[in-house]
Design brief:
By secondary structure, the protein is an alpha/beta fold. Helices cover about 40% and strands about 15% of the residues. The protein is built from 15 helices and 15 strands. It is globular and about 80 Å long.
Length: about 450
């Protein structure tokens, strides 16, 4: 059976393009992963949902996939746009009085737990940047030899003037880069927009490796070029990341990888839209972020956030609100209840069902992962005259892509802090027939996100 045509939006060309895998029926994907210096927030997790939905969709349509997602455990500076600041890993190590290795291990484990809560399937490979230092040094040496880089006092910079296509992904010109430069430019750079490939180690630096240019550590951008090409080859199909990765990170990746190979490396660039909270981008640096564990603490199923994210186009911004999350949680619960109830009607009747529903589902996911259309189709199916057992079978089949655990009927909700005491006080008030106090406590529980239902009290 041949795979159907899949069209995906390519950030590089600003248009949808037909997917033409380099390997027969196999799509190779590199995804920018977390910098493990803090817990990831739900905005990060929305970005990581993109390659998960991409893989699930492609596999549903008959393709095989191979996904590599990196773990950044060195070299990501606090001001990566202008190539300045401290290494985020070392900032965290200092603040928490732990080694960089301990910081990386702790937050990598937390990341793995968080993605599991959202049914984001593991990548096939999770390379750590610190495991690929030799490959990075080799790549930097090749760029120096090809005159795309230069070295000053043990620090190596990429010369953007040596790569004329630089800026095409982000639509940044050299003039824009100069105009956007803040503060005093690094006097060692030939151009303010040149970026660091290898940085000379300062005094008391914790993470240091030997190199032909002296002790130091890699720049953030060179890490992904080295890891992606080491594991997927000099040509692969798709590179994913968040919209905030377009510049400078992915722009730099293109320059490094293509300058050293002499050809295009990535077939298509896909970027997920940002998550907005009260009109501002959710970000660790801004402090306005929410963890998936906090969603649980508020009494919601973490997959309610996945349900919410499916309502928006993956490359559009998504406005997050507590009310929207609560609505998604309720809708997901009802959908699961329907699927469970309908499954009691008898055998799976999908074989006798007209293929229109399946075709519409496949068309939607093949059209640049159009999940708003998919969720509208789900709602239409729920209210249709299709036999109940068929509805249940279709929903469970589609859930291979949606990842909403529609076969699950419940969710063990974490009780918010302080709720158990309020519940106990309310039970006592009801037993004492202090109904005014009981109603007051009900409102306090509701404010915590806890709904209570009462059995009648015998007279």
């Amino acid at each position: 059976m041949s795979q159907p045509s899949v069209r995906l939006y390519n950030t590089l060309t600003r248009k949808k393009e037909e997917l033409r895998p380099l390997g027969e029926g196999v799509v190779r994907i590199y995804s920018c992963g977390p910098t493990v210096y803090r817990y990831v927030h739900i905005g990060n997790l929305r970005t990581f949902m993109l390659p998960d939905l991409l893989r699930r969709s492609l596999e549903y349509l008959g393709y095989q996939t191979q996904q590599v997602m990196n773990i950044t455990d060195v070299g990501h500076l606090t001001d990566d746009t202008f190539d300045r600041g401290e290494d985020k890993m070392l900032v965290a190590a200092r603040l928490e009085n732990r080694s960089p290795e301990d910081i990386a291990a702790h937050y990598t484990a937390a990341f793995m737990d968080d993605v599991r809560k959202l049914n984001i399937r593991p990548a096939d490979t999770y390379p750590r940047a610190t495991q690929y230092i030799p490959q990075m040094i080799e790549l930097i040496a090749a760029l120096l030899e090809k005159r795309h880089a230069y070295e000053v006092d043990g620090t190596v910079y990429f010369d953007i003037a040596s790569f004329p296509p630089y800026g095409r992904l982000s639509r940044n010109s050299t003039e824009k880069l100069i105009a956007g430069a803040r503060g005093e430019p690094d006097p060692r750079k030939l151009h303010p927009g040149d970026f660091t490939l290898w940085k000379a180690a300062g005094e008391h630096r914790l993470q240091v490796w030997p190199s032909p240019w002296g002790p130091g550590y890699p720049g953030w951008h060179i890490e992904c070029s080295a890891m992606s090409m080491s594991l997927l080859g000099e040509r692969f199909d798709i590179h994913t990341g968040g919209a905030d990765n377009v510049f400078p990170h992915h722009e730099a990746e293109i320059a490094q990888s293509e300058a050293v190979t002499g050809h295009r490396v990535v077939g298509a660039w896909m970027h997920g839209g940002l998550l907005m909270l009260s009109g501002a981008r959710m970000a660790k640096s801004a402090g306005n972020f929410l963890r998936v564990t906090e969603i649980e603490e508020q009494g919601h199923d973490p997959l309610a956030f996945r349900y919410l994210a499916l309502q928006a186009k993956y490359r559009s911004p998504l406005n997050f609100s507590v009310e929207g999350l609560a609505g998604a949680d309720k809708a997901l619960r009802h959908l699961r209840e329907h699927a469970a109830d309908w499954s009691q009607d008898g055998a799976d009747e999908m074989q006798s069902t007209p293929g229109e529903w399946g075709s519409r589902f496949r068309d939607a996911i093949a059209d640049d992962l159009d999940f708003p259309r998919v969720m509208a189709l789900v709602a239409e199916l729920v209210h249709s005259a299709v036999p109940r057992s068929v509805k249940s079978a279709l929903l469970r089949h589609w859930d291979n892509v949606l990842g909403l655990d529609l076969g699950r009927t419940g969710f063990e909700r974490a009780v918010p802090a302080g709720a158990e005491q309020l519940i106990a006080e309310r039970e006592k008030a009801r037993a004492e027939r202090d109904f005014a106090r009981s109603d007051q406590l009900r409102q306090e529980l509701k404010a915590l996100g806890v709904e209570v239902s009462d059995r009648s009290i015998e007279k």
